[in-house]
Amino acid sequence: MSYLTEKNKYDCDKIDGMKKIGFLLDPDVVMCLKAGGVVVARTDTIYGILADAANKQAVERVFKLKGRDDGKSPIVLIASHSQMFNSMPPAEYNYSKQVWPGKVTLATPADHKQAPVWLHRGNSEFGYRMPDYSELLAVIRQVGALIAPSANIQSMPPARTIDEAYDYFGDGVDIYVDGGTVTDDTPSSLIKVKNDGTIEKLR
């Protein structure tokens, strides 16, 4: 089950409040994300708050909903390397071809001339991941790169169900897509690949 909230529809004119939309690939989901909306949906790990990574207002809205520290860069989900906001060093690129799609986030050097400040947030690197979830990848191909931090208020446990996510955010989110109950809430691993190919596990 999926449902939409009436508030904060961000001019998604075709969206009707509380309309059941069925699944992640429903056109309303893509339309809403393209219009700067915010969607809670299950990824290949846990429930996340999805927003267009290229849309500053949408990203800042997610930060406000979560009460997330301003200096903490979000992980960016991509469907192809061409959707990255900065280039990936050769050793890291080669490693990514081995582990993506998958539950591995790669800490990538942030080129402040290419990557927008609302993503790197002044940090020297931030994470990219290609999720192992065909429906989510299809959405990313249509919308572009997405941020998808865990669906919870900062310092609170990640939502395991769509009801728990709604309890956190209520009408502050435009669309909730019910992906069932999360039984394994282990987040993606966070890896840094050094220029010589050495692997450092950060999480």
What is the gist of this entry?
The chain has about 200 residues and is α/β, with parallel strands linked by helices.
Describe this protein with a few key phrases.
203 residues; alpha/beta; 25% helix; 19% strand
How would you explain this protein's 3D organization?
The protein is an alpha/beta fold and 203 residues long. The chain contains six helices and ten strands, in the order βαββαβαβαβαβαβββ. It has helices at residues 27-34, 56-66, 90-99, 117-120, 134-143, 162-169; strands at 2-4, 39-42, 47-52, 76-77, 104-109, 125-129, 146-147, 175-177, 189-193, 199-201. A ten-stranded mixed β-sheet has the order 1-8-2-3-7-4-6-5-9-10, with helices on both faces. The longest helix is centred in the first third of the chain and has 11 residues, at 56-66. It is globular. The model is unreliable at 1-20 (pLDDT under 50).
What share of the residues lie within helices?
25-40%
Tell me the strand order in the biggest sheet: 1-8-2-3-7-4-6-5-9-10
Structural class based on helices, strands and sheet pairing: alpha/beta
Globally, the shape reads globular
Overall average residue pLDDT = 88
The number of helical elements comes to 6
